[in-house]
Amino acid sequence: MKPVVGGWSLRRRVITLLTVVGVLLIGLAAAEAAMAARNRTQIDAVLNETGPLRVQSQELLNALLDQETAIRGYAVSGDPDDLTPYREGLAQEKSVTASMRTLLDNYPQISQELQTVEERVTRWRQSVAEPVITTTEQSGTRAGQALVTEAARQQFDEVRSAVNDLQGEVLAAREQTAHDVRTSSNVLVVLLIVAALVVVVAGAVLLLSLDRMVIRPLTGLATQVREVAEGDYQHGIATVGPPEFIQLGEDVDAMRQKIAADLAEVRAARERIEWVNNQLQKQAEELTRSNRDLEQFAYVASHDLQEPLRKVASFCQLLQRRYAGQLDERADQYIAFAVDGAQRMQRLINDLLAFSRIGRLTTGFVEVDLNKVMGDVAGQTEAARQYADAELTWADLPVILGEEPLLTNLLANLVSNSIKFRRPDVPSKVHVSARLVGAEWEITCQDNGIGIEPEFADKIFVIFQRLHSKDAYPGTGIGLAIVKKIVEYHGGRVWVDTDVPEGTAIRFTLPALPEDVEAAAAADSAAEPNALTAGDTTPSTEAPAALTEQADGPDQPDRADDTLESGRTGDMRETVG
C-alpha cells in the first residue's frame, strides 16, 4: 500500500485507511461465508450421516451376533429364556436398518450393500435360525444341535462378510466426506491468512501514523505504571502529550496513591492476623496438652485409687462379718456406712474410667447387627430382670456402622435404667424398636416405668445428675451421660420423648447404611402407586407396633425368627418371671 500523501490530517488518514481495509475485508468475508457454508454442509454429512451410519453398522453387526449366539445357546439348553437375546437382536436389527435407510439418500452404494446384508440375513434366518428354534421346541436339544452345522456357520459368516462390506462402504464414504471437509477447511484457512495479512498491513500503516502522537506518550505512561506495578508505589507518575493523556496520567497517579494507602492498611491488618493466629495456635497446643494431661491424670488416678479402696472395702467387710453384733448397733451402722461408701466409690471410679475411655480407645467402626447386640444385652440384664419380674422385647433392629462394645454398653444402660425405674405395683416391660427417618435410624427404648417430668428431660444426660436419692434408686448417675457420649461418638443425638402416654421413651439416632436408605427410597417409590390403587393409607411404620402387640400377648411363647402375619421376621422376646 502506498503511503498517504503528506498534509493529510490524522483523522483523514485514519478514515482513508479504514475504508480501504473495510472494502478488502468485506470481500474476504463474503468468500469466507460461502466457503464456511460449504464446510458446514460437509461437516454435517460427517457428523449426522456417515458418523451415525458407521455406529449403526456396528450396532447391526452386534444385533446379528446376539441372534446367532442366542440360537446356539437355545439349541444347547432348550431354555426359552435363551431366545430373549434373539428376539431383542431381531428388534434392534429392524430398528437399526430403518434408521440407516433414512440416512442413505445421498449414498446409493451403501444402500445397495445394506440391501445385500438384509437378503443374506433373511436367508440365514429362514434356513438356520427358525428351523433350529422349531426343531428344538418339537424334538429337543439334540435335534436342534444337529442343525447347527458347519454350513450354518458358513452361512452366518456370509452375513458377517456382507456387514463388513457395508462397514467398508460407510468408512469409504466417511473418508471422502472428511477429505472434502479438510479441503474446504484449508481454503478457509487461506482466506483467513489473507484477511490477517490485510489487517496486519493496515495496522502497520496505522501504527506509523499514530506512533508520534499516541503510541510514544502511551509507552512512557505504561513504563511508569509498570514501575509502580513492580512494587514502587511511591513513584509519582508524570505524563506529556495531549491533554487527554495528561488527564489519564493524573487519574492513574491518584489510583496509585489510593492503592499505596490500602496496602499499608492491609499490611497492618495482616500483622494483626498473624499475631492472633500465633496466639490461637499456642492456645490450641496448650489445650491439647492440657486435655492429654487430664486424660492421663484421670486414667492414672482411677487406677491408683482402686487399690486403697479395695483395701478399705475388704477390711470394712471383714469388720462387718467378724464383729457384727459384738459391738453396739451404732458401730454396726458405721461399719455398714463405710462398706457402702467404699463400694460406691469403686463403682463411681469404674464408671468415670469407662466414661473417659469412650472415643479414646477405639477399635474402628464395623457393621454391627443390633439384634445380636440386644441378645447380649438380654444376657447381661438377666439377673436384674429376674429380680424385677421384667419383660424385654425388641423387633427388627437394623445393622449399622459402629463399635459393638460401645453399642452393647449403650443399650445395656438404657435397658437397666428402664428396669430400675419401674413402678412397684406394675410388672416392668421394656421394648426396643427402630424406624428409618431420612438417612438415620431412630431407635427407641420405651418402658412402662415411673416416667420423667418434661422439665428434667435435658438434665438426665448430665454426668452425676440424679433426680432421686440413692436410697430410692441406687446408681452413680453417670449411665445416661455414657449413653449420650456413645451416641454422639457415633454421629447421632439422644433425647427423651415426653409425649408418650406412660413410662419413659428415650430415643436416639444412628447413621443408616447407604444401602438401607436406597432400599427404603425404592420401597417408598414402589409403594406409592400401590397405595393409590388399593386405597390403603396405613403407613408401613405400623409393622413394629403389630410385632410389639403380638410379642406382648399373654399366651405367646418365647420365640425368635418367627414369620408373622405382617410378613416381617426377627421379632425377639426375652421374658423373665
List low-confidence stretches. 1-7, 532-577
Strand content: 5-15%
Query: How many strand elements?
Result: 8
Structural class: alpha+beta
Q: N-to-C terminal Cα separation, in Å?
A: 115 Å
Largest sheet: 6 strands, mixed
Number of DSSP helices?
A: 13
Keywords for this entry:
single chain, 577 residues, alpha+beta, 6-stranded mixed beta sheet, two-stranded antiparallel ribbon, 13 helices, 8 strands, 8% strand, disordered N terminus, disordered C terminus
Describe it:
By secondary structure, the protein is α+β, with helices and mostly antiparallel strands. The chain is 68% helix and 8% strand. It contains 13 helices and 8 strands. It has helices at 10-77, 84-101, 108-139, 141-147, 150-229, 243-323, 329-357, 370-380, 382-388, 404-420, 479-489, 514-534, 542-551, and strands spanning 366-369, 391-395, 399-402, 429-437, 440-447, 494-497, 505-511, 571-575. The strands form 2 sheets. It has a 6-stranded mixed beta sheet with strand order 6-7-5-4-2-8, with helices on both faces. A two-stranded antiparallel ribbon has the order 1-3. Strand 6 (494-497) and strand 7 (505-511) form a beta hairpin. The longest helix is centred in the middle third of the chain and has 81 residues, at 243-323. The radius of gyration is 45 Å and the shape is flat. The N and C termini lie far apart (115 Å). 23% of the residues are buried.
In short:
With 577 residues, the protein is of the alpha+beta class. It is built from 13 helices and eight strands. Strands 6-7-5-4-2-8 form a six-stranded mixed β-sheet, sandwiched between helices.
